[in-house]
Structure formats: structure tokens, C-alpha cells
Amino acid sequence: MEIRKLHIVQFKNYQEAEISFFEGVNCFIGPNGSGKTNILDAIHYLSMCRSYLNPIDSQNIRFEQSFFMLQSVWNKDGQEVDLYCGVKKGQKKIFKKNKAEYDKLAEHIGSFPAVMISPYDRNLISEGSEVRRKWMDGIISQFDRRYLENLMRYNRILDQRNALLKNQLKNGFFDRESFEVWDEQLLETGHSISTKRQEFLKEFIPIFQLFYDELGASGESVNLIYKSQLIEGDFRSLLVVNMDRDKHLGYTSVGIHKDDLIFELNAYPIKKFGSQGQQKSYLIALRLAQYEWLKKHLNQNPLLLLDDIFDKLDNNRVEKLMQMVSNHSFGQVLVTDTDEERVKRIFDSIQEPFRMFKVESGKIEQIELQEAR
């Protein structure tokens, strides 16, 4: 699978731009703030129906404009596919495949997968549990449609239960029986989600270790520890035991929405004990494992989007990374960087073909195509 053409209108800093992509590695070169990352984010939007950087749709519209539009042509299984996304302030987001609008955006998830590696990935280590849950859920949901449906259903049920708790707290009364219907539905969907998360991690962690080793960190062990109240105790009992607490808090304090992942290196939390270099390698290996897992389960190559990572790694790791992602098992790759000469040196050293674009002030110009040798 690959993207062939992209047409951007009023998206972030772009008034209008068109790009024709190379089937292999595409490099976007330009100063910070020029719009390089926004190209990758537009592709992520077409893949996942949302921005990688800003989940609020209206805030991705160009300043002082009322809408944005993304239009693209993809090659999938030898067939040409048109994707369209339109967002207008105050209106429903429109997503179309070959001019036919999706009834539900969930129908699109997993059809055109993409994996982004970005400096913002550090949030997976530094931020709270919600960031790590969303990362895990986002991977599983691309392959398992029922998981995505259960996740959406669980969140709707949780909202209803929390609204009831808040209402009863506000009005000063409590009716335990009114929660039974919501609790039963939480139990059903919560157990299913928890089981899938555990199955995913059991398969994912060995893949993660392999990529961490390949990046030049062999001899160190990586792990993802699943922390869940549903492992530590029976979900039904947890809801009963914590009912008094919930009614005073006004929200549900137990469930899979409290799950977390502990990122470990050599059996210690990497957040506290990992060096900056170790954390960078850890996150890149994590994303490459994500790519490999999706490739296996979706039976196609996702797009790999590498945003401004060359100056975050030493030369040895950069060369190993690009040797890994430039081979055919990784399919189409899009790279951003500020240094044109650095990019040329990297691809000269690994002797891989690439297409280079210059990005400046929302303008995109192809400047070089290096053929295979």
C-alpha cells in the first residue's frame, strides 16, 4: 500500500499544496515551522480520521478560514483508491472513499494504516496513563473491529454511569438499583477489552525486544507491564466495594479506563532510570514494533512517517534505523528533517533511492530524485 498524491487545502499552515510521492523514501527538508510535520499529519489524518498532534478538528483549520480539505490517491492491492476528508467549523466531519461517504468513521480505521515516529512520542513515557492506553487501543482497534466497538460502547456506558453519579450527588439521594443495568454492561465490555489487551501485549513484547536489539542496544531487556484493577481483583466486586467512594466522588473510580502500562528497561521503569539515549531508542523500537505488528495482522505495509528524528539520535543509530526502514519490508517511508546535506549523506551511505522535497512557508517543491544504484 502506498500514497501517490496528496492535495491539501486550508490545512494548518497550508493554503493549498499538491504532492506526488515516490513509492520508496520521500524526504521533506525545510526549517522548523515551515510545514514539514503538517504533511505527515495530513497523511495520519487520512489514515486514522484524526490529527496526530491535535485531536480538536477545528483547530487544524488554517488561521481565519472556515474549513480544510484533504484529498488523496492511494494504491492498495493494485487498485487506485481516492480518499477525501472535509472538516468545516460547526459541521460534521466528512470522510469518503471513492466518493462514497462512510456511515461510521470506525469503518475506515485499519484500512489505510500509518505509523508515526515523532519527538512527541516522549509523551508516552512522560505523561499519564491515558496516553499509553490510547496508544495501545489505537493499535488493536486497527485490526480488531469488535474491540473498537466494545471500546466505544464501554466509554458510552461509563459516561452514562458517571452522569448518574453526578446527578445523584447533586440532588443528595442515592439509588443503588439504578446502577445495575450500567454495571452489567461495564462488566461485559470491560472483561472483553482487558482480555484483548493482555493478548496483544503477550504477542507484541517479543517483537519490541527484537527491534530494540536491532537498533544497537542488544543485551538490554525491554518490557511493557500491564497494570489493571481487573487483574488485581474481580471487576464486579470492585464496583460493589467502591460504590460508596464513587457516589461521593461523582465518577467511576474502577475499571479498564484506569489501566496503565509501565515501560520497563532491564526491569526498571525507563521514566526514572533510562538515559535520554535509551529512552529515544526505546520509543523508536516501540513504534517499529507497532509497524511490524500491524503489517502482520493487516497483511499490508503501513506507511512509515518519520518526523524530525535524525538530530535526536547518534550517527550509528541513524544509519541502522534508515537501513532498516529503507528495505522493502517497510514499504513507503516519509521523512522530515531540517538539514538537506545530512539527509543526502545518510542515503548516500546506505545507497537507497529517495525523492527529496523542499518545504518553506507552506510551499512544497520537488528538488531531487536519487535513483537506485
Count the helices. How many? 12
Q: Approximately how much helix is present in the residues?
A: 40-55%
Largest sheet: 6 strands, antiparallel
Which strand-content bin applies to the residues? 15-25%
Radius of gyration: 22 Å
**What's the CATH class of the largest domain, please?**
Alpha Beta
Q: Any idea what the CATH superfamily of the largest domain is called? A: P-loop containing nucleotide triphosphate hydrolases
Total strand segments: 15
Stretches where pLDDT falls below 50 for ≥5 residues?
none
Q: End-to-end distance, in Å?
A: 24 Å
Shape: globular
Strand order of the largest sheet: 2-1-4-5-6-7
* CATH A-level architecture of the largest domain: 3-Layer(aba) Sandwich
Would you tell me which CATH topology of the largest domain applies? Answer: Rossmann fold
Derived from helix and strand composition plus strand pairing, the structural class reads alpha/beta
Order of helices and strands: EEEHEEEEEHHHHEHHHEEHHEHEHEE
Mean pLDDT over all positions: 91
The total domain count is 2
